[in-house]
Amino acid sequence: xxxxDSTLEGHATGLSVGPAFSxxxxxxxxxxxxxxxxxxxxxxLVAYGFLRNGSADWPRPFHSITNVALMTFILxxxxxxxxxxxxxxxxxDKAGAFRWTMITAGLGILFALLHVREWMxxxxxxxxLFKNPWGNGLFGAAFFSVTGLHLTHVTGGVIALLAVGVxxxxxxxxxxxxxxxGLYWHFVDLVWMFVVPLVYLMNLAH
Amino acid sequence: xxxxxxxxxxxxxxDLVVYLCLLALAGLQFAIAFQNIDTSQMLVRMLAVAxxxxxxxxxxxxxxxxxxxxxxxxxLVFTIFVLLAMQYGWTDSTRMVVGAPFSK
Lengths: 206, 104
Description:
The complex is a heterodimer of chains A (about 210) and B (about 100).
Chain A (H helix, E strand, L loop, with lengths): L2 H13 L9 H29 L12 H25 L3 H31 L13 H32 L5 H26 L6
Helix pairs in contact in A: 2-5, 2-6, 3-4, 3-6, 4-5, 5-6
Chain B lengths: L2 H6 L2 H23 L5 H23 L7 H17 L4 H9 L6
């Protein structure tokens, strides 16, 4: 065996010791996506904070916390139902895992509908991307950008929940796929924990 | 998370406790919103609560607690670096409020 061959063989051996950090490749890919997506949301929230901090007449248009409190409760509960679905999948309870995944998707749809209802209310009050009746015109652009990005993630998550749930029931996906999707769903929930105080609670009309 | 790890992570009871903690912390954020304090204090308090919430979610809902230590450190260091790197602009936004001239 030449030196080149032995070097190549050693290299191949080094590559075949297993996936990075000894976790499945799909899960690692999802974690890397989540870290990258953290950058996206952090950039949006920092930009939002920059605008708010740099504006003397930042609007405070929210008179009630009922809607956002309900949305928060629904999203947190959907994380719990996702976990129950994962546990059912791990236990081999296919029907249970499918049912809880669909319940999670249903809660996601409910969250999205409440979100859209809130948007429509603000639009009816005269808020657009560049003007509003309360103060700095950039509020609309900042608000719709941050919450819109989050709503896009929720919508994507709901579609993924439906697709993965159906394919899991059909035997094409397994519990690992439910877990990877769960990581994404929990991340969407986690981001909401920062959106609520910055975008809603700090802009309550007192 | 393998089945063994699922057992190690404490079962459904632990998930429920974490869920209730998250609900309580979310409620605390709403309570802070009605405190009679200035905006910067409110921001600090709400972000502190949000960070605790995020930590609970990442460790227990996303099971980072049961992953390999090396991987958990990788995620932690990478995320902190990203969040710190985002903080360049704050001094400029304060300068916009007080009307100070931009440096030449």
